[in-house]
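Researcher: Let's do a round of design. I'm pasting the structure tokens now; please hold your answer until I've finished.
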């Protein structure tokens, strides 16, 4: 019997193991895993990427952000943008969604960012803010807002879905609490201003312009794409349903709830669910869009991006919806409304920033335009008059006049920035127009020569028909020659206009336009060559070495400049 006991025990252990595997039995004290359980990674960063910027959270969790770069020449410069939609599908919504004039920049210079973050920063002179890669999830919400940590070993699928049914005020409180936790537990995780030990980056809701710029692709999209695309650039053959959880027209199956974060493809900036899933709150109050500007009445807050309950038109980045801060029963909330935060900072930190701002202001609007530099600068004349003025009233009037002229000059500088972009775009497409006319002329000339050879052996009605066709072809050649000549003349005038703009303005415009032609297909490669060629012609003219007309046309038709 003594030899049989160990064998019986081994047999019992095998039976118990099989029972655990096939019947779901577990040893005493073991938790029963939920069928739809998720991991903390599913609720924080289900789609990791090399350029992720990860900040810690309470309960051992984390939140992932993407760096958003806004091109600008200095702290007092910004990027003109036009949020909204060009054409509203519903005429009754035109004053809700119509595009309006706005501007965007960021509070952080490259030196303000931690060294590890700078690796994700694009080249060029930019200013930065950060935006969350995903919508805030239920698990992240509980980690910040609850007194105790959730059990991360047994999480239901709900933990990885966007938190919804919270008010705008609760979302703002989340950003406050999260910032306070970071400052206490991970102060070096936030960006700090160079030379300023007091001010630091903080978490908040995004402005509408910050949200929409990032949702449209941010720095990956050029100025033309930002203006022309109602969604964002997607690969050929892709559809909105690849990027959004929503209810497309005619769909066989429609979602009844928000999906887990990261369940669809990201936008070009690497953000998930900016279209559909949960609609997102922003910091701004809703104002009507009228005549290219926002109306003066600030109402509820703006919600963006649409949700799993939305149709095609509602998930466009430019769509603008108003939600009240309060309803009759208290702060407003909805089962399809969530949020994603940004990391921003103040515009007037200490350190070296005050001196930089003052220096930029002193330079702004002080220089004459290149074509006017032969004239005397009126601001310098006013400065001399201010020194000589003894009467306080006269001095005050002169100072007001100087301030008016300076502000007008600053406005003109901003206009020159837009003019430079428009000029380069025109030059790029005119090069293509010239090539098109030349190609059509060569083709028609070749056909005419072929018909002239055929006519030598033809007779009767065939010869008469050929002669009529050849007459039409010769008239076509004259028209093409005229079009080619006028197009080249117009192109040369644009090159001359380029010499009137500061080279730095053209460089900034080149960087912006280069993003419009960033693809690797033949069209975009050709457009980049055209851009380089136009800048070459403008630089040669600026150096008083303009190319003769024939040489310029030859370069355009050769397509050899990179």
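Researcher: That's everything. Go ahead.
Model: Designed sequence:
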């Amino acid at each position: 019997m003594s030899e049989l006991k160990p064998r019986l025990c081994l047999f019992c252990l095998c039976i118990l193991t099989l029972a655990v595997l096939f019947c779901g039995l577990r040893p005493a004290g073991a938790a029963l895993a939920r069928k739809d359980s998720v991991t903390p990674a599913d609720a924080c960063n289900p789609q990791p990427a090399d350029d992720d910027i990860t900040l810690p959270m309470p309960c051992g969790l984390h939140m992932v952000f993407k760096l958003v770069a806004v091109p600008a020449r200095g702290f007092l410069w910004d990027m003109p943008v036009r949020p909204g939609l060009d054409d509203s599908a519903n005429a009754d919504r035109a004053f809700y969604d119509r595009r309006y004039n706005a501007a965007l920049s960021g509070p952080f210079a490259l030196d303000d960012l931690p060294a590890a973050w700078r690796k994700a920063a694009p080249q060029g002179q930019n200013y930065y803010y950060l935006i969350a890669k995903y919508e805030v999830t239920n698990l992240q919400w509980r980690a910040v807002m609850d007194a105790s940590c959730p059990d991360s070993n047994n999480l239901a699928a709900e933990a990885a879905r966007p938190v919804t049914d919270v008010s705008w005020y609760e979302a703002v409180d989340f950003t406050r609490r999260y910032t306070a936790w970071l400052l206490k537990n991970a102060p070096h995780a936030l960006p700090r201003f160079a030379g300023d030990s007091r001010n630091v980056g903080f978490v908040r809701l995004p402005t509408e312009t910050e949200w929409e710029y990032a949702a449209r692709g941010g720095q990956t999209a050029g100025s033309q794409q930002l203006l022309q695309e109602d969604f964002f650039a997607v690969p050929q053959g892709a559809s909105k349903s690849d990027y959004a959880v929503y209810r497309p027209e005619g769909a066989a199956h429609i979602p009844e709830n928000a999906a887990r974060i990261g369940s669809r493809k990201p936008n070009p900036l690497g953000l998930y669910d900016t279209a559909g899933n949960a609609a997102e709150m922003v910091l701004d109050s809703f104002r009507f869009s009228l005549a290219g500007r926002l109306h003066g009445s600030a109402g509820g807050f703006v919600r963006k991006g649409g949700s799993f309950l939305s149709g095609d038109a509602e998930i466009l980045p430019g769509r603008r919806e108003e939600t009240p801060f309060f309803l009759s029963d208290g702060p407003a909330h909805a089962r399809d409304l969530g949020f994603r935060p940004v990391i921003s900072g103040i515009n007037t930190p200490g350190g070296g920033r005050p001196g930089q701002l003052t220096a930029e202001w002193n330079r702004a609007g002080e220089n004459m335009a290149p074509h006017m530099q032969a004239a005397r600068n009126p601001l310098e004349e006013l400065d001399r008059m201010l020194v000589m003025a003894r009467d306080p009233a006269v001095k005050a009037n002169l100072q007001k006049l100087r301030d008016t002229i300076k502000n007008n000059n600053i406005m003109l500088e901003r206009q020159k920035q837009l003019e430079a972009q428009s000029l380069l775009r025109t030059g790029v497409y005119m090069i293509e127009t010239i090539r098109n006319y030349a190609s059509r002329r060569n083709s028609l000339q070749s056909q005419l020569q072929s018909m002239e050879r055929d006519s030598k052996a033809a007779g009767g009605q065939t010869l008469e028909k050929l002669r009529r066709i050849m007459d039409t072809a010769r008239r076509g050649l004259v028209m093409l020659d005229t079009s080619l000549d006028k197009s080249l003349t117009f192109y040369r005038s644009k090159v001359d206009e380029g010499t009137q703009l500061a080279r730095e303005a053209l460089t900034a415009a080149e960087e912006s336009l280069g993003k419009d032609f960033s693809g690797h297909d033949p069209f975009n490669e050709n457009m980049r060559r055209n851009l380089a060629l136009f800048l070459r012609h403008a630089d040669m003219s600026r150096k008083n070495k303009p190319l003769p007309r024939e040489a310029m046309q030859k370069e355009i038709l050769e397509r050899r400049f990179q």
